[in-house]
Amino acid sequence: WKEAGQMQNLEITGAGRSVSTQTDSMTGQIPRLSKVNLFTLLSLWMELFPAVEGQRQKSQKNDNSQHNNSCLKKNKKHTKEKKNKKHVKKTGLVVVKNMKIVDLHCSSEELHAGKIALIKHGSRLKNCDLYFSRKPCSACLKMIVNAGVNRISYWPADPEISLLSETSTSEDAKLDAKAVERLKSNSRAHVCVLLQPLVCCMMQFVEETSYKCDFIQKMAKTFPDTTFYSKCRQERIKEYELLFFVSNEELHKQILMTIGLENLCENPYFSNLRQNMKDLILLLATVASSVPNCKHYGFYCDKTEQSNEIHNQSLPQEIARHCMVQARLLAYRTEDHKIGVGAVIWAEKKSQNCDGTGMMYFIGCGYNAFPVGSEYADFPNMDDKQKDREIRKFRYIVHAEQNALTFRCQEIKPEEKSMIFVTKCPCDECVPLIKGAGIKQIYTGDIDVGRKKADISYMRFGELEGVSKFTWQLNPAGTCVLERNEPESRESKYLQ
């Protein structure tokens, strides 16, 4: 808790402003997500990055092979091997330098997230902070400690090599946990848990803004019965609690003691820890539900004459949705009291890389905020209802797309497919920047397309040429048949 408090003080005092993507004040007119919790949530979300097609096919092939080769003679041997085999959990990782996100990773079938970071960054990990969705194994920890990282933060539940009851008969996981503790005690890096409590009214604010976001509002116009959102949210909460939370308190204490967190097993520390974990899981489930995994809605191109060609170039819907949720999480770092906007840029290599993200790799991200080094109240923060144009915010606030481009950690290569995910339609100020940067695809909502709101205009997006635009809409293929008098639950009809 002391470490988390120090990190919060770092944000409040504005240390490292010269390299931050926005101001560091924690106060303002709306609740705001701390950077530490943003990095933690992104690490959890990266653990859920959709499996790439090649990995799926390989997994299915292995499953079929195991099924066909299973027989009575080999059953006993197979069971014994399975019992002794280390059960490795998939892990997400956020690499941060000077409080700025420089990469997002997800473990693959062959490599853990820490090893992927070593392959991609090497000695450039020096002085970086790493946020893991699980405590890394000894094989990963020894290498990332050796690279000179500054801090390694992890989610305090089941570690990368699982300690859950079904694998507790194997000593491998316990031996690995002991090795990790020895590496931790002998390293310069701070290996710790960083979970900050959500600020007052943060959860209520996330619930309200998620329900009112462009994607849910667009669906509500087609499907007046919006109970699908609350049902989807409840499903996500159950799903993420199973993944990221140890429901049995005694089992959770056993895991914490095994991974060297015995001092968190006593109250009030233990109850506070679990409450903070629950709050963050609830927040993640709420934000994820704001871009629903829906049968008939997704990111599609409006140009029907090019639909087949563009469809072949577009991302799978589940990956596009995953990246948009990243942008939605980023939006909760905003300083704009009216609307938070998040943007994330990814690109696609021509061949698959070692990461669990397949051919995709991270370029940069941002959210709308005032310029670096300023205080929250230094600039006007009035909305379009304010009559005096001189004290409106639009001339001062830096847009999410602008921050993502400014603080990108890699260059945008013209020969590769790059894509930006923005929670709201890019305005006339940002559209030329996106095209000029060489970004090939835009994924966004389109509620504001063609409109002018006081000083902000959204006219250029509809006229943009040379960039493929994928907006949240009904599947233009026409597979959706709306039956208004259908008695069955809309949840089963609309959601996958």
Supply database-style keywords.
496 residues, alpha/beta, Cytidine Deaminase, domain 2, 2 domains, 13 strands
Describe this structure as you would to a colleague.
The chain is of the alpha/beta class and 496 residues long. The protein folds into 2 domains: 31-49 and 87-292, Cytidine Deaminase, domain 2 (3-Layer(aba) Sandwich), CATH 3.40.140.10; 293-482, Cytidine Deaminase, domain 2. Helix content is 40%, strand content 13%. It is built from 18 helices and 13 strands. The chain has a 6-stranded mixed sheet. Strands 2-1-3-4-5 form a 5-stranded mixed sheet, sandwiched between helices. The protein is globular and about 60 Å long. The two termini are 40 Å apart. It is an enzyme of class 3 (hydrolase). This is Cytidine and dCMP deaminase domain-containing protein 1. GO terms for molecular function: cytidine deaminase activity; dCMP deaminase activity; importin-alpha family protein binding; protein homodimerization activity; zinc ion binding.
Topology:
Layout: H1 2-13, H2 35-47, H3 53-69, H4 72-84, E1 92-97, E2 100-106, H5 113-121, E3 129-132, H6 138-146, E4 151-154, H7 172-185, E5 190-192, H8 202-211, H9 214-222, H10 227-244, H11 249-258, H12 269-289, E6 297-301, H13 307-313, H14 317-330, E7 342-348, E8 360-367, H15 400-406, E9 417-422, H16 431-436, E10 441-444, E11 452-453, E12 456-457, H17 460-463, E13 468-474, H18 490-494
Family: Belongs to the cytidine and deoxycytidylate deaminase family.
Enzyme class: hydrolase
GO biological process, one term: DNA cytosine deamination
